[in-house]
Write a structure and sequence with these properties.
The complex is a heterodimer of chains A (70) and B (365).
Chain A (H helix, E strand, L loop, with lengths): L2 E3 L5 E4 L2 E4 L5 E4 L3 E4 L17 E3 L14
Antiparallel strand pairs in A: 1-2, 2-5, 3-4
Chain B lengths: L33 H12 L11 H5 L6 H12 L16 H20 L7 H8 L1 E3 L7 H8 L2 H15 L4 H4 L7 H14 L9 H11 L15 H15 L4 H28 L5 H32 L4 H27 L20
Helix pairs in contact in B: 1-3, 3-4, 3-11, 6-12, 7-10, 7-11, 9-13, 10-13, 11-12, 11-14, 12-13, 12-14
Chain lengths: 70, 365
Amino acid sequence: MRVRLDPGGPLMVEGPVEVELEDGTVVRSDRFQCAVCVCRRSRTYPWCDTSHRGRSHDGRRRGDEGGRER
Amino acid sequence: MTAIPVRAGPRPPVRPGAPAQPAHHAPPPRPRGELSEAALGALTGADPGEPLRLPSAREAAAVDPLGEDSQLTLYVLYELHYRGFPGVPASWEWHPDLLRLRGDLERGFEDALRERTAGGIDLAAELDALLVEPVHPQDPSVSHHLADTGVWWQLREYLAHRSVYHLKEADPHAWVIPRLTGQAKASLVAVEFDEFGGGRGERVHARLFADLLAAADLDDRYGGHLDAAPAVTLATVNLMSLTGLHRSLRGALVGHFAAAEITTAPSARRMVRALEHSGHGEPGFTRFYTEHIEADAVHEQVMRHEVIGALLAAEPELTADVVFGIQATGLLEERLAAHLVDAWTAGRVSLRVPLPDGPHAGTDA
């Protein structure tokens, strides 16, 4: 199995993956690759929801809405 | 060895094709000007075996390339390469006169996009910019608007706009597959496999969106909101068809796909919040977006590291095209966002035709 750690981002694991949480429950994802949250900010923990991303407070960024919420 | 008959002359073979699921497929849209009048008139009234009289290159160039008439005509001509329209013979797909008109419109469209984007080869800067989330965006953001102040009729309008893409979600990107090799191909196909439900028909993203339309009591037919979708909406899909169908623009298609996947997860999160705020927080409404939060957090990693990385390692000369795809996506999404947020902030309908049961039903949009 191959695992890749994205600097500042999630742990990428080839799926399917089962993750055992602190309370003993096991969650499973059968996606071809899974992004496991390591920053603990995800609201879909243990899966990454991109909450690790930097935030800007000046409100600037190009291309806000993706083509595919899209 | 079987002899293959060779067909001489200009006529394409006529093979009347009955589209699949005709009941779940809306009829062709109404024209919006001379170009779409000519194209739709041909598709619905002429013989695909005969040459056509269509607007010349000069006449096509005289029409605003981002306007209603040009964008609808492009959308209709592209649709022939997807699922077409009920009652329109499939053999129109390769009619040389329609392809000529499509080419003329594509040149105008691509020129308009290139004129309005900065270009360059600083891919890292483009990606870094997409990877920062503005807390209070300066430019209009549809998902911020809907999550903060959106109401149900605006959410329903948004679903109608996006249906012109989501009901063919990930289809345009499939065209790039034979134009890629090695890891870029393998990884893009993995993302597409996920988009198409990982082998399960009921999980195909287009199907999840159709389920959402039905839950919101909206027309869930393929093409059901095409008449209502303005040019600013159609242009976002035409960009995908343009870059998907042209091998010369494969870098741009990959750039577009990456940009879309990178920006989706946070905006899908806000869409879930918007649905919850409007009293539609059940899974029947939110599933499409909750799936995209999780899926696209994966897809953006795969697109950035494996697809773009491998493509540019093999063909570094495509860097400018990847940048163009990202910038053109940003440009068209910003135009759409401005249109939607301006309309809603002023209490106006954002569609060309109000939803039949919306607050502005029976009025002119």
